[in-house]
Amino acid sequence: MTLRIIPERYSPHVQGLLRIATALLFLQHGTAKLFGFPHVFDNVRLMSLMGAAGVLELVGGALLLVGLFTRPVAFLLSGEMAVAYFFFHAQEALWPILNKGELAALYCFVFLFFSAAGPGKFALDRQ
After folding, report:
1. How many CA atoms lie within 13 A of 40 on its CB side?
2. Would you call 24 helix, strand, or coil by DSSP?
3. Do the Cβ atoms of 120 and 96 come closer than 8 Å?
4. Containing domain of residue 66, as a range?
C-alpha cells in the first residue's frame, strides 16, 4: 500500500504550480539584471554575459510563467544554469553549499524536468 498525500490525478496541477512558482522566482533574476529591480546588480550592460543572462531569464521566465514553448525554453534555461554553475560557482569550491551554487544547480534540474515532462496544467501550450 502506497501512502499518497496528494492523489495522482492532481500531479499535472502541482506540476503547473511548480512551473509558475519557479518562473516567478526566476523572473526576478532577469529584472534585477536588466532593470535594477530588485536592486542586486550594478551597471549590467545588455551586451555582456550578464546582460545576455538577464535577457534569457526575463524572456524565458515570462514564457515559462504562461507555459508557452515550455520544453525548448526550459531546456535552454537548464543549459544556462549549468553554465552559470560550472563557469562561475564551481570555480570557488567543490560543494554547492560552499560555492553558493545551490540555486543554479536546482534551477538547472527543475528546468531539465520541465523540458522532459512538459508544463503541466495552467499552460498555453499544454498538450
Report:
1. 12
2. helix
3. no
4. 14-117
